Amino acid sequence: MLKQDDRTLPSGSGGDGQVGLFDSVLARSQSQEILFAESPSRVGLQTLDLPSRPLGQYCANVWRNQNFETFEGLLKPFLNYAQLELEFRVHGYDDTLDFTLWEPAEVEILWLDSSRYTDRMAFEDWQGWLRSRLLDLRSRSTAPILVASWDAWRGDVGVRSLDALVNGVPGAYVADLGAACHGEGVTLLDPRVAKVSGSPISRSAQMVLARWLGCRWLPGLLLPPIKAVAVDLDNTLHAGVLGEDGVVGVQLESGHKALQSALWALKARGVFLALVSRNEREDVEALFTQRPDYPLCWDDFSAIEVSWGSKVDALHRVAQQLRIALNAVLFIDDNLGELASVAAGCPEVHILLASPEGTQTYRALQYYPGLWRWSVSADDAHRIQDMKANAERDRLARVVGDTGQYFQELGITLALRYDAAADLPRLAELCRKTNQFNLALRRYNEADLAAFMARNDASVVAVSLSDRLSNSGTIAVLVAVREQDVLVVEELCISCRALGRQLEDTIVLASLRGVMLFEGCRQVRFNITEGSRNRPARDWFSRLMDRFGGLHRDGEVQAEWIAHFSPPSGVMFVQE
């Protein structure tokens, strides 16, 4: 099962510890040139010896009808860079996908040569058969399922989308090997290779797919996502030093343009951008105002830290302003000393060395583990605008003393949805990503939540939040199970974007009252797990208990008290 550490520094103290830390940062930074080369080299990958500091240890079941062992060796350096320790439990060749030897694992991989089925069935028949096998696997496992294959049915109808293969299977994803290779400009299949290796995947495609698996697909299933990219300015977003070369003198090479465009694209997908630079603030603001050739502009940054102070302190302020944990931040800088300083002062922060010309930085950003997403939801798109609206919300909170009036000024609406399958991806994301307001730390995935939705004694609540300033999207998930006359809250997560608005009590208690299983309950029991980052959730629960007075014991609350809870005026409810 999953084991995590806090990304602590290498052992040792004083000078020796700092030397070891710098060597570790140097080795990781030097590996970028090999890992993120336009055409990665097998020989180059074999020379890498990255320090092993895994964020998590996992096991993967591999169900296959073609060779997978070749990829294990190619995957290792990419997984090491992603700080993933992954054991592959590779099962025997099997076209029938008989899962009788199944054992628990953190991820299920179906590594399929689809051409082995083309002579026996039409694409639609294969699609139906494969979905039945996925449902059989889902009945055994709640882990994410990754179907890695390609479309071998090429006729008059053209290439089909493989995404339909997993329709109706919660927590299942498609890794389209053909589409990945096409995007990289390499040929997927080479029949000559099949006779030797047991798979028709070409040698050049093997390199491309190993990088996709190790840096995108598997981290996208197993690791917490990166929510913000904090970037240096001089010799990172442009060539030159602003304070010396001036606004006109700094150079924007093609690599820097590509990098800035890639950062803008991340922002459009809901990833925060932060600027962390040692410069005069008015000079930097003038730069983005007077250089129309820059793809990025001043307003694209959700947090700006321009000063002559410590970048470690600046990154702490960025995380606080964006209301995210430090381990959700990627910091890009051209100075190895700065990166080593950040690694010492903020060991949770991800670091990336910027190249002088920007091209290598651009490529590294394309593959940095934790940035790639399986899908981009409307909730992701809301994130940036919602954060910008916080300044106005904070202003209102200062000038309006009455809570009800504050809510009326904002025009708050809470939408409650019960057991809605369409919410599964976002609710699973909340369970996986939420650290500060996560009461039980269950980390349920789509399959877990779908199983609760299917039970007669359980219910899953999704809560969306909006006001006149912005739509915050789906911001909370609550999982409740009925045990005789007690309703047990198995999981409760509220996104950090909803915190600080004095709505926690209302979100939780209104959600519970709307659960059909709540009727007739005598008590409501909250399951609580003490974690390193969920103190805000535990503090909220303590305050709630104080409000109940004598009407609670050991995390159990009298249901009657919740039934009589009066939400503050100014909050409108919609039940969907």
Structure write-up:
The protein is an alpha/beta fold and 576 residues long. It folds into 3 domains: 54-222, SGNH hydrolase (Rossmann fold, 3-Layer(aba) Sandwich), CATH 3.40.50; 228-367, HAD superfamily/HAD-like (Rossmann fold), CATH 3.40.50; 389-575, 3-Layer(aba) Sandwich (Aminopeptidase). It is 41% helix and 19% strand. The chain has 21 helices and 18 strands. The chain has helices at residues 14-35, 42-47, 69-81, 123-140, 177-184, 191-197, 203-222, 242-249, 254-268, 281-290, 311-322, 336-345, 359-367, 378-388, 390-399, 403-410, 424-433, 446-454, 504-514, 535-548, 559-563, and strands at 56-64, 84-93, 107-111, 145-149, 172-176, 228-231, 272-277, 303-306, 329-333, 350-353, 412-418, 458-466, 471-483, 486-494, 523-526, 552-553, 556-558, 571-575. Strands 16-17-15-14-13-12-11-18 form an 8-stranded mixed sheet, with helices on both faces. A 5-stranded parallel sheet has the order 2-1-3-4-5. It has a 5-stranded parallel sheet with strand order 8-7-6-9-10, sandwiched between helices. β12 (458-466) and β13 (471-483) form a beta hairpin. α1 packs across α12, α5 (177-184) crosses α7 (203-222) and α8 runs parallel beside α10.
